Amino acid sequence: MISRTLITSLALAGLALGVGCSSEDRLKRVEDQVTDLKVEIFKLRSQVEDANKKADEDREAGATSRAQETRFRADLQETMRQLQDATRVLNNRLGDAVQQRRAAPPARPAAPQEDAGATSEDEKAFNAAVLDYNRGNYALAADGLALFLKSRPQSAHAPDALFYLGLANYNQKLYNQAQPAFERIIKEFPNSNQFLPAKLKRAQSLLKQGLKPAAIRAFKEITEAFQGSPEARTAKQELDDLGL
């Protein structure tokens, strides 16, 4: 090993003596070229690092954009769902009013003033509770509706109040509190226009609580027993989303 190194050193020394000054100039140029090459490599490496950094930033920006789009779609769907629920309640209240008008006996010549006053107070109390819901004050709405139902259990607005109470808790993600309100409608007011919407919201509340088997059974019951209804279409969509 030492001999080989010595021979190599002697050969290089001889080569240096043979080429003289021209070799020194040539070596200087090579050193300069190597230095320039190192500078170019450094620049290229910096460019690659910058490109990688920008690519990472673009990926992060893309992921953020996709996440924002997903959240926007979810918020939009939630807003649409709330509007549909509110529209359903109003339509059902209108239907109840029409049915009551048709079923009402002929008007008496002199109705007691206290009956009209009681009806007016009942309406005002209900509307006051619903007003908080419409403004998005779901906690206040839930308290007001619970108080309304406690103080006026025989009110004609009881099914609507229960449905709004369920929605107010549902919109606060208090699904375990929303479920009993919908179940009361199903059990106590089977002839109410809120009956089928309550069955749908009960099923959705079950799903939100992670009670998937019970929710699936509830959705299937709606699709099979109430075909063609808006609630059946929504229930089918829920089942489709679950891959069923």
UniProtKB/TrEMBL annotation:
InterPro entries assigned: TPR-like_helical_dom_sf (IPR011990), TPR_rpt (IPR019734)
Repeat positions for TPR: 159-192
Lineage: Bacteria, Pseudomonadati, Acidobacteriota, Holophagae, Holophagales
Disordered, as annotated region: 49-71, 97-122
Residue ranges with Basic and acidic residues bias: 49-61
Name used for this protein in its record: Cell division coordinator CpoB
Biased composition (Low complexity): 100-113
Transmembrane segments: none
